[in-house]
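Complex record, two chains
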Amino acid sequence: MAAPKILIVAEHDGTQLNPSTAKCVTCARAIPDGDITIAVFAVDGAAVAAQAAALAGIARVVRIDHPANAHALAAVLAPQVAAAAAGYSHVLAPSTTFGKDLLPRVAALLDAPQLSDVMAVDSATRFRRPTYAGNALVTVEVEAGTQLLATVRSASFEAAGATTGASAPIETLALDVEIPTHTRFVSISAATSDRPDLQTARRVVSGGRALGSAENFKILYRLADRLGAAVGASRAAVDAGYAPNELQVGQTGKIISPELYIACGISGAIQHLTGIKDARTIVAINKDAEAPIFEIADYGLVGDLFTILPELERLV
Amino acid sequence: MKKILVGIKRVVDYNVRIRVKPDGTGVVTDGVKMSINPFDEIALEEALRIRERGAASEVIAVSVGSTDCQQQLRTALAMGADRAILVEAGGGVEPPDVARIFHKLIEREQPFAVIVGKQAIDDDSSQAGPMIAALWGRPQATFASKIDIGETTATVTREVDAGLETLEVELPAVFTTDLRLNEPRYVKLPDIMKAKKKPLDTLTLADLGVSARSRLKVLRVDPPSQRQKGIMVKDAASLIEALKSKGLV
């Protein structure tokens, strides 16, 4: 079998390479004997290509500059990625909203199978990935010789470091593909909150139905602010109207892996536990000593939230 | 007829504790509650609201899978879909083939919008929507939290890692739904009775000229490593002390 040729689609904002790309490099390097190329699709990819070329373990960077590449639109990028992918055995992209939007469109254009959210590499044809929100891990094999597309789960791979030698060569690639105009970027508004983003926060304080009201959620916000933490909520709390939808943690909300998760008045429904099981340390505070959350918590405290939370806020 | 096609996948209900079979061949589904994939329920709700605003005239619910999927399609009809199509196929149709099946139905029905969940909560692949859009050669707006349908275009707000992105797409187009798009309605008993009279057609893969391929072979299914039960602390002070000793606060 020929040595694997791996193409990584870089994620960037036009000037900065997104760290998720360096994680794809680590995943690609786990494929034995792989020859790794990073592709940068941009209007002017010079700066991003230079950052990509400095990553350890890659053979080359290809730049595909085009005026249509000002924004990462899947419909615009997919035909270009599909054309650039000719001759590659593997095409990787990060499992971010960028990669999840783009790669399946490329896979369909190439009529190739895709693995989503790869968490481990066993060989060039055998990979592991989570299903059922991480409750069942599958080992999947593709037939040798099949071109494979994969998104890479960022939480499972460390970022590749900088090369100690010379940067990899940067080539420019001109593609002759028709680029659709039916999809237009209008605007982007960054999340405007002084609090850390729930998805990426190192600490999260989360509340359940036991908080009793939206008003009482303020106690949680105060503790979160003391800790520099993001605020989350259980589905029960969201359904009861105590917290907005975007704060929902769990299988149908956000699946998070903070260093510290403090669950306040959350009983621990399965769908919630699914969303937090990769947290490094889980603290549970609940007045019901029998609550299932205590079965998985590293630290449990039985008692009344309305006395414990202000106390914690004072003690931190 | 301004039609919307909605994808309805039958999955293990989100409240069920998933158990991996001891022999590692899959997860236990026998005797387990099955439901509409929650993101597909949101897709259906959105299609119904578009129709109720007068921007669509027919909502068609589509499922690919075993005859058991009729249950979920009946629920979709009870929620308000006008008719349903079951494309009968064995278990585990891979997303590229699901997309080919949808593409064939699109050719038959000529919808102006296809709405599906951003992912199914069983295989978590998150592939079908963009694949349908690619085969159709039409725009895609994934992870939508707001959809405004105009005469010839739609304006969509998408939940992306960097924040909220707004796109304008020409119709027809494919949309995939995020959690924040809407809250699906509850089904009322009279609607369940009415749904029994609504058309539910069954097609085979042969009817559509599609043959399912299996290109991703599942070798093994393992449970994740289990968390150990930790320790109970007696009060707030000892909790803070424990967290401080670990450098967590």
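Note: Residues 3-245 of chain B form a domain with the Rossmann fold fold (CATH 3.40.50.620).
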